[in-house]
From TrEMBL:
Pfam family, one: tRNA_m1G_MT
Cellular compartments per GO CC: cytosol
Broadest EC class assigned to this enzyme: transferase
NCBIfam families according to UniProt: PRK00026.1, trmD
GO biological process assignments: tRNA N1-guanine methylation
Organism in which the protein naturally occurs: Halalkalibacter suaedae
Family assignment from sequence similarity: Belongs to the RNA methyltransferase TrmD family.
Protein name, as recorded: tRNA (guanine-N(1)-)-methyltransferase
Compartment list: Cytoplasm
Reactions it catalyzes: guanosine(37) in tRNA + S-adenosyl-L-methionine = N(1)-methylguanosine(37) in tRNA + S-adenosyl-L-homocysteine + H(+)
Length: 246
C-alpha cells in the first residue's frame, strides 16, 4: 500500500513514521509512506499557498493551485487511481469501519490543511472523502493524518504479529473489546476470573463475548442502537442491571 501525506509541516511525521509498528511495516515493504510539502508546488514567486477570502472575513484560505498540482504529480506516479482524503472538521467522523475501508485501497493521499480553511473547489473537484477525527478543531490536519495512517496500517496483512488482533479490536465487531488478564493469576488478592484459567475454550469464548457486550452496554450503549442483536444477547443485556444491583 502507498500513503502520501500533503502537509506544510512534513517534519511533524518523522517520529511517528520512524517508530514502532509503522516503521516495521515500511521496512518490511507492506506500506510505503511519503510526506510531501505542497508549498513546493506553489507557482507563486514566494511559494505562497494561501490568500484572503473573497467577501472578507478573518483568517486565510488555502489556495487551490498548489494542492491540485501536488495531487496531480502524485497521481501521475501512481499505478492506480488514489483515494484522496481531506482532513477537515466538517468531514465525516472517522471510525473503525472507515479505517477498514481505507485499508482496502492501494493508494491513499491525505490532505492536511491549516489557516481558516480550504478553497471550496478543492472539496468539490479533488477529494473523495472529507474526514474528521472528532468534534473539535485542531491547528492543522497533521495529527488527524497520523491517526488515519496508524489505524489503517495496523489492518494491513502481515503488520500485526497475530492476524486475529485487528479482527477482535474494539469497534471491529461492533462491540468494545472484552477485558484482558495476564500473569500472575492472583495479584495482591485481585484474582483472574476462574473461567479464563479453566482451559475450556468454549466457556472462555462465551465469557469474552458476554463481557464485551457488558462493557459496550456500560460504556458505549450508543453502539448497540444500530447493531442487530440475537435473542441470547438481548437476554444478557436484560440481566445486566440485575447483576449490577446484586
Amino acid at each position: 500500500m502507498r500513503i502520501d501525506v500533503l502537509s506544510l509541516f512534513p517534519n511533524m511525521f518523522s517520529g511517528v513514521f520512524g517508530s514502532s509498528i509503522l516503521k516495521q511495516a515500511q521496512e518490511s515493504g507492506i506500506v510505503n509512506y511519503s510526506v510531501v510539502d505542497f508549498r513546493e508546488y506553489s507557482s507563486s514567486k514566494h511559494k505562497k499557498v494561501d490568500d484572503y477570502p473573497y467577501g472578507g472575513g478573518a483568517g486565510m484560505v488555502l489556495s487551490p493551485q498548489p494542492i491540485f498540482d501536488a495531487v496531480t504529480a502524485l497521481t501521475n506516479n501512481s499505478e492506480s487511481r488514489p483515494r484522496v482524503v481531506l482532513l477537515c472538521p466538517q468531514g465525516q467522523r472517522y471510525s473503525q469501519a472507515k479505517a477498514e475501508e481505507f485499508a482496502k485501497e492501494e493508494h491513499l493521499i491525505l490532505l492536511c490543511g491549516h489557516y481558516e480553511g480550504y478553497d471550496e473547489r478543492i472539496r468539490e473537484h479533488l477529494v473523495d472523502d472529507e474526514v474528521s477525527i472528532g468534534d473539535y478543531v485542531l491547528t492543522g490536519g497533521e495529527l488527524g493524518a497520523m491517526v488515519i495512517v496508524d489505524s489503517v496500517t495496523r489492518l494491513l496483512p502481515g503488520v500485526l504479529g497475530n492476524a486475529e488482533s485487528a479482527m477482535t479490536d474494539s469497534f471491529s465487531t461492533g462491540l468494545l473489546e472484552h477485558p484482558h488478564y495476564t500473569r500472575p493469576a492472583d495479584f495482591r488478592g485481585m484474582k483472574v476470573p476462574d473461567v479464563l484459567l479453566s482451559g475450556h475454550h468454549k466457556n472462555i469464548e462465551n465469557w469474552r463475548h458476554q463481557e464485551s457486550l457488558r462493557r459496550t452496554w456500560t460504556r458505549r450503549p450508543d453502539l448497540l442502537e444500530n447493531k442487530t442483536l440475537t435473542k441470547d444477547e438481548l437476554d444478557l443485556i436484560d440481566d445486566f442491571p440485575k447483576k449490577n444491583n446484586s
